[in-house]
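fwd from M.: "can u put these together and see what the complex looks like"

so here's what she sent:
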Amino acid sequence: MKLPEIAGLGLAFVARLITGAQGHWVGSPPKAEQRIYFANHQSHFDWVLIWAALPRELRAITRPIAARDYWTASPLRHWITREIFNAVYVSRQRTDDEDPLEPLMTALRNGDSLVIFPEGTRGHKPEPAAFKAGLYHLAEAFPDVPLIPTWIDNVQRVMPKGEVVPVPILCSVVFGAPLALAPGEDKRAFLERARTAVIALRSAA
Amino acid sequence: MGSTLRNLEVSQQVGLLFVGLFGLLTLASLVSFGLSVRDRGAAEQALFERFQRELRAVWVAAVLFWVAWASGAFVSTLLFGVLSFLALREFVTLTHTRRADHRSLLLAFFAVLPLQYAIVATEHFDLFTVFIPVYVFLAIPLVSAFGNDPQRFLERTAKIQWGVMVCIYGLSHAPALLLLDLPRYADRGAFLVFYLVVVVAAAQIAQEAASRWLRRRPVARAISRSFSWRAWWCGALAAALVGALLYWATPFKPVPALVMGFLAGGSGSFGAFVMAALKRDAGVHSWSGRPSVTGAVGLLDRIAPLCFAAPVFFHSVRWYFGF
């Protein structure tokens, strides 16, 4: 085993020790196929929690999205996101000649699974904010990839905004039934449908 | 026969205890396997599945216990520390805390818990008794107050305090038994822990069976439908009986062993009753062994009797030997 693998196992163990990181597969089985997971976003810990809740075989093929300017700023951050998580880097500054979704599209063309937080930023309300259009564009470009709604429960208590040390509190991650873009479906209607699907999982948590 | 057993070498006694324990468990598993092929109704099936879950939990506990025994007092203390951590994690999940409590919770988990167990391991029994009830009692509200949030302040700090008392302070009395320096009983503290765990478990099982069988009027229907005085007596007396049967492994004579078993088993059953009230308060109805709302697996439920029985037993032992 190489160092990143060991570090990854250690990190997953710590995440499970602190939060339990229980994965509940209510609408889709854990399966090694290409998928896009989309989830509510409340804390920096969200990605680690989803990642730890996935079975080990799925962790290797499931990639997070990381902001390039922040996550490549120091060698350690860069190493963690690159070697352990195999993150897809995106730039936050928009330039005219570059599509911000291009790195995601490339990853999907390679057959990788992605975890995205379509709210775009961390929320602090019980319900997630309106979803950004990125999810719609990905669904349009890759109609064959199942979109899995995901609800992360309780994580805001583990690490509220502004704190750096997580408190041990049990959390769960609920994976719902796959969603697909209906032919000719309106962008706003689709995004609202996706958001409702995520919220609906709260009762299963 | 008692005196023969009593005069055995420590290693022989341990061997006998574990052979007995694992023998009983194997027998129970075989019976359970035999029963598993039979047809039964839905209610019976649910009961049977619950029995199987409990049996699995007992197996895990017995193996852990054996590992802890084999590797000495330090590992046992560490093991109870881990149990405390998992129980407190579950407790905090069930209670309502606010953002401002973040630092007090960190204090409880990452400072108080390791310190309390370090105090146990280094045998500072005076500090061990006052550390949480006095110093931590003062420190937690202070840290919470720095969180700058007056809303439900007393309620929040009281809950954290309570969780720390039960999950850390109460449970830490179990490994403290390992280190008690009893007359003519050096290096045999693990027997006391074994005695405590077995007696408390016996009380739980007997009480559960009695409440199903007797169907008496519950004492507090809103809290537990199964807790009746007669069932409690059955549990405590069963604990007393088991305690007396195990007397050869303890520093007690048969009658004191009986009384100790009664005290530990009875207080353990009260602990389970209090935990039932807490469950109702948190809105968790069924929590035994099944992942619930929070994904909690019911560890707290299982060790709550021990958390209540351990301090009572610990101090009874100290009083009995007059120190």
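replying to her w this: Residues 287-295 of chain B have pLDDT under 50 and may be disordered.
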